[in-house]
Specification:
The complex is a heterodimer of chains A (about 450) and B (about 35).
Chain A (H helix, E strand, L loop, with lengths): L7 H4 L5 H12 L2 H13 L3 H29 L3 H46 L8 H10 L1 H20 L1 H29 L4 H9 L9 H14 L6 H7 L7 H29 L8 H13 L4 H35 L3 H21 L1 H41 L10 H23 L3
Chain B lengths: L2 H27 L4
The chains are: A mainly alpha (about 450), B mainly alpha (about 35).
Amino acid sequence: MSNDNANAARSDGWGSRIGYILSTLGMSVGVGAMWRFPMLTAKYGGGAFVLAFVIISIIIVIPAGWAESALGRKYKKSAVGTLGEIAGKKGTAFGYLMAATPLGLMFYYPVIMGTVLMYIYYTFAGAPFLENSEAFYTSVNDNRLAIYLCVVAIIIVTAVISLKGIQKGVEKCCKILLPIMFLFLIIICVRVFMLDGITEGLNFYLSPNLKGLGNVNLWMEAAGMALFAVGLGPGYLLTYGSYMSDKADLATDFVTVNITQLLICVLCGFATIPAVVLFGLDPTAGKGLIFQSLPLVFSQISGGMIWFVLFMVALFFAGLSTTLSMMEIPVTCLMDGLKWSRAKGIAVVTIVSCLGAIPCVWNDAFFAFTDNLVGNVFYCVTAAVIAFYLAWIIGAKKIRTEWYNPTSALQYGSWVDVLYKFIAVPAFAYFAITAILSLF
Amino acid sequence: MSMGAWIMLILYLGGLGGGSLALIAYSLKKDQI
């Protein structure tokens, strides 16, 4: 593969089926999902939330994910190239909006990963956070220069891996990171299961409060989590789909990604929630759960800091596999839209990301604003528009019968079209309107 | 553990764990690019 070829994005491709699955899984399982899913599960009564998540994944996420992936594979271009080809200049402009979403995420997502890196460092430096975890978390947050240096390092590592291309860079890296992350999670779960009195915590995490299924908020939170955890909207699935061969069974592969993603989220819950409950801490503490509660929990287990570091490394690997996908979308759009080489696109995205991270690191209000604008509004709007265009303009039936059913091991019927057009699209539209209203 | 917790544990390990492992094994076996 030539990195200097303007069409390198499409001269490259997945080297194997498992490579696509692990890379897409790496894109979808990030730092956010790994703490947010267990927290929401604990908040909404264990199995009820997971059940809602599974139902929403089946009726909304899977039909939409199949269509976006199939769109990418059909045109074998970036978001800009694909939408420009099917919808002209308006499509190109919308493609750039899609690319702006992961680029904007690169401004603040590595900040959370930077905090994870610092905690890994401090664990080896005597774990000072055990004395007063809340004050220590605040002091880490206040050390802006150190966090920024971590952010720059993370962005540069992402760029170096991306420079090697999709197969030798992203795929090869995810084939290493994801199995290690999975193994670490399993090891921690086994250790947590062996704790005396853990049944109390397991009961809390596992016992299904089916009455909770009547709670509208549960469904909204589960939908928000399920819809955006797999990267529907800003071109992730489209771009990763564009690297698939015409023979690939994308329908089965996307289902594999979806189920395995859910398994990893549930495992994160097993690794954290029962132990947090056992030691009398709040399992719904959000980000504080990771940086304030978990160190205290693991410190009470023999060899505790080893387990804490393993969890933090797993978190970091999940984040790194996600930043790889964040860089890939704008880079491929620059390659297609401006005919830049991959190296030039990566260099520009790296510099812009490092500059954009400055206000996010030093200004908490800007961080929160960017998080809402990019991680909520852009995400929801792009997901709604692309779903509407695919389901109603191109046609859900055409996509199913011509784009993915011919290569699928199973043949999916017209029920998929009904779910996509009448449930998924209105759900996306609702989230988009809600997100836009949140700006005012 | 309560009965409900056991049922959920079996569903998680059997359904999600078994399902994802089976699908990954299938994809490794039929590794078309």
